[in-house]
Amino acid sequence: MFxxxxxxxxPPVELAGEDGLLxxxxxxxxxxxxxxxELGIFPWYNEGEIIQWHAPDPRFVxxxxxxxxxxxxxxxxxxxxxxxSSNKAFVQVMENCRDVNRPGQSGTWIHEDxxxxxxxxxxxxxxxxxxVWQDNxxxxxxxxxxxxxxxxxESMFSLVSNASKYTFIKYVQLLKEQNVILIxxxxxxxxxxSLGAVMISRKDFSRLLQKFAVx
Length: 215
Hints:
The protein has helices at residues 30-38, 71-79, 90-99, 112-123, 163-177, 190-193, 202-212; strands spanning 2-4, 21-25, 42-43, 52-54, 59-62, 83-86, 127-134, 137-147, 150-158, 182-186, 198-200. The protein is of the alpha+beta class and 215 residues long.
């Protein structure tokens, strides 16, 4: 494990531990956070802890062409029960991702410092959100970082059944239209596996970032 200094540089991702932890310390300045994402590194830590930077191996990703939509979701999407939007409620999406109850998880890593850092990145045009609405109420969404042709997903939430799946599917379709070729899902979840996400090696992930994550 490495301790970061005021300099923005990071150690090689290959030096991360088995749990993916690469370095600690530093700060959440936009320049540092963007430099981290370009290398496949992301901050993930609880409030009150020193900043922790992760680069797990393998990496969980989705290639937009491989998005899986179940027949039940196809039927739901044809009904138009939800209204989809992008970058209309970034702060609300982050707040809901922070506040939503997640079984088996106490607390949240989306605390004030993280909120402020990603709000700045949103203002700079790097952090984006997707939202779904029902009866004029925000019921689902996700947010993350976009660099070049790569979208790095950070978190999602759902207040009603299937809202997060609907958001994800619609946003992947939008990103595909915008020529995004890779969506980083960071770590494995059954939810995203059901939508087509797969594991690839950190080495392959790094190669894709070098080619497509041009900030």
